Amino acid sequence: MRTHDSVSILIFNTSRQCFVVVKQFRPAVYMCEIERHQPQIFENQDKESFPSLENPLPAVVGVTYELCAGIVDKPGLSLEEIACEEVLEECGYRVSIADLRRITSYRSGVGVTGSRQTLFYAEVNDQMRTSGGGGQPEEGELIEVVEIPLEESMKFAYDETFPKTMGVIFSFMWFHNNIAPKLPKK
């Protein structure tokens, strides 16, 4: 199996005092939910066929909240350049390499891919928004841009009714420990 490393970006909009994340359908999450709710579908199945779903679950069970992110698959581009492209494509903000702060890198998908993800932080404002984002539909991306208000972010991080990646939880905690204490008090 060939895998790619990736970048992810914690985006904070200073104009609105909110995080900018993406919401998108993930087939693997959907299939896990089908198996959890309808395990009989997967019993005694050969690997060449898949039964049709008589009572499919709504697509929303496969939707997750995630940081803006992308795979490292463009030779000649730095991680920072790829991160800037992803912020523009997925969220509609034009950021420069100078706008990025590298937080850390870590292994993601260690049980399957073991790829490395590099996490960046970027502050944006409303004037930096040049489009609605939404990803590249021709590449199968159907992305909704979502704003999480700063004052609700930790509640969101721990609310299990909002399916999210560990990157969202970690990065919100990082922000509250490293950036929030330096913000002007209201």
Span of the ends, CA to CA: 51 Å
SSE succession: EEHEEHEEEHH
Outline the biggest β-sheet.
7 strands, mixed
Question: Taking all residues together, what is the mean pLDDT?
Answer: 90
- Which secondary-structure class do the elements indicate? alpha+beta
Strand fraction band? 25-35%
Give me the Rg, rounded.
Answer: 18 Å
Global morphology: globular
Give the number of helices.
4
Uncertain runs with pLDDT below 50, 5 residues or more? Answer: none
Number of strands: 7
- How much helicity do the residues have? 10-25%
Structure overview:
The chain is α+β, with helices and mostly antiparallel strands and about 190 residues long. The chain contains four helices and seven strands, in the order E-E-H-E-E-H-E-E-E-H-H. It has helices at about 25-35, 80-90, 155-160, 165-180; strands spanning about 5-15, 20-25, 65, 70, 100-110, 115-125, 145-150. Strands 1, 2, 3, 4, 5, 6 and 7 form a seven-stranded mixed sheet that branches.
